[in-house]
Structures are given as C-alpha cells and as structure tokens.
Specification:
3 domains; 13 strands; transmembrane helix; 44% helix; 363 residues; Rossmann fold; 7-stranded mixed beta sheet; membrane; 6-stranded parallel beta sheet; alpha/beta; 11 helices
C-alpha cells in the first residue's frame, strides 16, 4: 500500500537536498555570476556605456538623406539603450571642428553622414587614435576610420529600368543636387537601367549645386519636362521636393525619389524610390565597436530585397503603393527579373564616378 515509513523517509531526504540546492542557487550562483561579470564585462554592459554621435551637413527635416540619419540614430537608441548625440546642418568648413568636438569629449564612435566628411575624418582620426569614425557614403579608410559606401547605382539602375519601361515619350530626366562622385554614380546606374530595357530612350540631366532649394529644383525639373520627359528622378535632398512638385503639376509625369520612400510627398506622382537601409548600416557599425571587431575598411554594400533583409545589402526599392495598378504586369515581371539578376551578380552595375558621354546630355 502507498505511504510506507521508508517512502516517507526517502521523500524527506529528497526535500532536504532540494532545499540545500535551492539555497546554493539563490546565494552562490548570483555571486559567481557577479564576479564573472566584473572580470568579463558583457556586451550589454559595453553597450550601455558606449558614447555614440551622429553628425551630418544635411538637414534632419529634409524627408530624405538627413532624416534617414536621424531615424537611424533613434533606432540605435531603442536597440542598445543609450542616448546618441546628434547634430545636423553642419557647414562644410566646420566639419573638422565638429568631429574634433566629439572626439575631445570622449565619444567612442562618431558616425559622419555624408561624403564631405571623409578627409576631415582621416585628419581627426590621426589625432584621436582611440576614437572610431564611420563615414556613411565615404570612400576613405585608416586604422580607426571606416566607410560605408552604399552601391546606390544598383538601386538607381532598377529605377532607370522602371523609367525606361514606363515612359511614353522615350524621354526621362534626372536632377542631382551636386556633382559629387556618389551622385554621378547614381546617375550612371540610372542611365544603364534605362538603356538596358529601352535602347532608344533619351536621358536629360542637370545638377543644381544646391541641396536645399525646392524652387530651384522645380525650375530645373520643369525645364526637363518641357523637353518631353515624362519620368523624372531626383537625388537632391529638399531641392528634390521641387522636382516632385513639378512632376505633380504636369499631369502624366511620374517622379522617382531617393534615400527614403517619398511616395507620401505626392502619392499620385511618386512611382517608386530607392531606399537606403541606414538603420541596418548604423547598427552594423555600432555592433562592430560593441564586439571589439571594428576594422578600418571601405564596405561597399549593394541591393537587398527589402529593409533588414539577411546579408550585407543596404539598398532596396519602395513599393508602387497606390500606383501599382498603373504599372503593367510585364513591367513588374521584368523588374523582378532584373532585381534577381543584380542580386545574384548575373548582371553587374559597375561604379562609375565620372559621367559617360555616350547617352543623352545635360541642360
């Protein structure tokens, strides 16, 4: 029958042993864990103590390039649990002094958002060897300076293909903020994409030498539209808002945006945009410092299927949103084929930092 004396004795012994083990777990294990943490600080501890700054010459309010850096800084704060210092609208002559300010203040990592920060980053990096600097869209490196150069031409190639297939006039346009190598590279990808699907297309382009002048962007875009362009692409920060407005005011003209999904600026006009996955890029930079495996290299990351996708890609396309019914099925199918070809390296969109002169021309 159940409940003999031996059974009760065994149960009592087990209970005593269990209590002893519980006391050991409660009192001893935490002490050992605390001692181990003191000897080997965890990644979480390093995360909480890391000082990070994000700086840019762009505007955080531009709905594009500058805002993407602010959004990425906020994402870092949410993920890692520390405050990120931010500063925008830095004048070009002040770039080096701004970097020095954060380096002198003991920041572990400074993320500089813009190609203009490259040479000043090298200079400040030499003076502050313990500070890590990452230049987004840069092409510089040293022992403590790295660059993340998004292969934006892969995204603009796909936008060029969209433009080349969607145009009814065989004329498309491009407006750049300034003739930087990275902006030229984007234009060259756009040209290649358009010519791949439509050898007869004509591309008209111009540079504004002004990133924050919507009126100037609108004027330039209007001039291109008057030359029969019915799809126009900008890489011009807030000046690009004027490009989009010009397309909106000229019925039947589509606009293509840059850096962020700009459909919300004109839902019936902005057909798509190439987007930079800045959140992912900044997270990779912070993670490398947290883990102690930062390397002063130039990282060139291209296309991905969507935000946060596996792999190193940091460039992807925005959906067509409410304009998807305007895009013929054969156009969408061809676009998906080209995306797969670029992803699988069956089709190469090379870096071209100088303009080719074999297609179209400027205004």
């Amino acid at each position: 029958m159940p409940g003999s004396a031996r059974t009760y004795s065994a149960i009592a012994g087990i209970a005593v042993t269990a209590v002893a083990v519980a006391i050991f777990v409660v009192l001893i294990i935490p002490a050992l864990s605390q001692q181990q943490q003191q000897q080997n600080p965890s990644d979480q501890q390093r995360k909480s103590s890391l000082k990070v700054a994000v700086v840019t010459d762009a505007l955080f309010s531009d709905r594009g390039w500058g805002e993407s850096s602010l959004n990425a800084a906020k994402q870092i704060e949410r993920k890692y649990g520390f405050e990120v210092a931010t500063q925008d609208n830095v004048e070009i002559p002040d770039i080096e002094s701004v970097l020095e300010k954060y380096a002198d203040a003991g920041y572990d990592l400074i993320i500089a958002h813009g190609v203009q920060w490259g040479e000043p980053a090298l200079s400040v990096g030499r003076q502050h060897p313990d500070v890590k600097i990452v230049v987004f869209a840069g092409l510089v490196k040293s022992e403590n300076v790295a660059s993340i150069f998004p292969m934006q031409q892969e995204g603009s190639f796909l936008l060029g293909a969209i433009a080349g297939m969607m145009t009814k006039t065989n004329v498309i346009g491009y407006v750049g903020g300034e003739e930087y190598p990275s902006v030229i590279n984007i234009l060259e990808g756009y040209k290649q994409g358009a010519k791949t699907v439509n050898p007869d297309v004509r591309i008209i382009w111009t540079y504004l030498n002004d990133w924050d002048n919507p009126a100037k962007g609108k004027e330039a875009a209007t001039s291109i539209i008057r030359q029969k362009a019915d799809v126009i692409f900008h890489v011009a920060d807030t000046s690009g808002h004027g490009v989009i407005q010009a397309a909106k005011e000229n019925g039947g003209v589509y606009a293509l945006g840059a850096v962020q999904d700009q459909n919300s600026l004109a839902p019936d006009t902005v057909l798509s945009s190439f987007i930079l996955d800045v959140d992912k890029a900044y997270d990779q930079a912070v993670d490398s410092v947290v883990k102690g495996d930062f390397k002063g290299e130039i990282y060139k990351s291209g296309i991905e299927t969507g935000k946060g996708a596996p792999g190193d890609g940091i460039v992807y396309l925005a959906p067509f949103h409410g304009l998807k019914d305007k895009v013929p099925e054969n156009v969408n199918a061809r676009l998906q084929e080209l995306l797969a070809d670029v992803l699988e390296k069956r089709l190469v969109v090379p870096e071209r930092l100088e303009e080719t002169t074999t297609v179209a021309g400027r205004i």
